[in-house]
Write a structure and sequence with these properties.
By secondary structure, the chain is an alpha/beta fold. It contains eleven helices and 17 strands. The protein binds (2S,4R)-4-hydroxy-1,1-dimethylpyrrolidinium-2-carboxylate and magnesium ion. This is 4-hydroxyproline betaine 2-epimerase.
């Protein structure tokens, strides 16, 4: 099975409700990039990468497409057999840019799964469950309203909530955390996500002012070094998200003991294959983590769910997919759906998503024949 052609498509994914608000940025529509890898024996594999705007991480949609333009010509004619060899080939074309390579990694696993007749979860080591928990992300908003949505989402079955804070005064952040806790109590696990926005001082004060509330503190400050200084000065467990820019950052955070868990993004870590390494490092140290991406449609959602199904359930902080914030699906027959706060793991061979023909329009780039 050799690669004959690579088509690159784009789709705009507008945010339901208008704005997704985080400390680091407000976004209104996300620009997703899809790669379609066509083989000489007529199989088609799909991958996707969709940064949540250009500010959240050092990634952006045009950057992904520029990186794909460097990589794609060198992949034409390659055998889809060894994922490692394909990764090596991509590294020989371009240094870094894992978030673009991730789209290819997903497409290669999709093809290999179809060829072998197994779902991608099997290629990642094997599923431990046939459905995985999701979590709901509450955007930065007024305390009362945030608490009301939190209570609704718990009623809808979500076992975990992420409360976004920062980018405003401390009083509102503290009030939001208290109101959400009063509204949901122990009915859901809570993460409080600063999205890099708090100073060290503000993180310490928020920790003290919410002392009795059980939550994990996600990416409170901008850098790994700032977050490291919080260790021993705050009482809430600390999770890293944005700072885990690659596998090495995860290894460093684990070995320095500065993270109690992680919010992982599949494309930021360079794809599903690279994620299996950090997943296993976390298993060695009993560290919890989520299986998310920053944004994206059903292909990214499926990738997150396949990966999440391979994580020991007691350490799985859920899969975050953008479904609650976007309209429609790529594959009407097999959409990735959150039901009762959980997501069924696709059982079809490959990634389990076949976008409707023509739904992305004409390719923005084509490589090969
Ligand atoms: C909740 N998310 C997974 C979606 C947005 O990309 C932000 C992100 C996070 O945890 O920071
Ligand atoms: Mg986060």
């Amino acid at each position: 099975m050799r690669i004959d052609r690579i088509n690159v498509y784009t789709i705009q994914l507008p945010v339901k409700g208008g704005t997704y608000r985080m400390a680091s940025d407000d976004v209104g529509a996300l620009d997703s990039t899809l790669v379609q890898v066509v083989t000489n024996d007529g199989l088609t594999g799909w991958g996707e990468t969709c940064p949540i705007g250009p500010v959240y991480q050092p990634h952006h949609a045009l950057g992904a497409r520029a990186a794909i333009a460097e990589i794609a010509p060198g992949l034409i004619g390659s055998e889809i057999a060894s994922i490692r060899l394909l990764a090596k080939r991509m590294d020989e074309r371009l240094n870094g840019h894992g978030y673009a390579k991730a789209a290819f990694d997903i497409a290669f696993l999709d093809l290999l799964g179809q060829r072998l007749g197994v779902p991608v979860s099997t290629l990642l080591g094997g599923a431990l469950a046939d459905r995985v928990p999701a979590y709901y992300s509450l955007i930065v908003g007024p305390p009362e309203e945030t608490a009301r949505i939190a209570a609704d989402k718990v009623k809808a079955g979500y076992p975990r909530l992420q409360v976004k804070i920062s980018g405003r005064n401390l009083e509102e952040d503290v009030a939001t955390v208290h109101k959400v806790w009063e509204a949901v109590g122990y009915k859901a696990r809570i993460a409080v996500d600063g999205n890099r926005g708090l100073t060290i001082a503000a993180a310490i004060l928020l920790d003290r002012l919410c002392q009795a509330i059980p939550f994990v503190f996600e990416q409170p400050c901008n850098t790994i070094d700032e977050v490291a200084t919080l260790k021993g000065r705050v009482t809430h467990p600390i999770y890293l998200d944005e700072n885990t820019e690659d596998q090495n950052a995860v290894l460093r955070a684990i070995s320095l003991g500065i993270a109690d868990g992680f919010g992982f993004k599949v494309t930021r870590l360079g794809g599903l294959t690279k994620m299996t390494t950090v997943r296993d490092l976390c298993a060695i140290r009993s560290l919890p983590h989520s299986c998310d991406d920053a944004w994206g449609g059903d292909i990214i959602a499926a990738a997150c769910v396949h990966l999440a199904s391979t994580v020991e359930p007691r350490r799985l902080e859920g899969a975050w997919i953008a479904q609650e914030y976007i309209e429609g699906h790529f594959d009407a027959k097999n959409p990735i759906l959150i039901e009762n706060g959980h997501i069924a793991v696709p059982q079809l061979p490959g990634i389990g998503i076949k976008p409707e023909p023509g739904m992305f329009g004409e390719p923005v780039a084509t490589y090969g024949s």
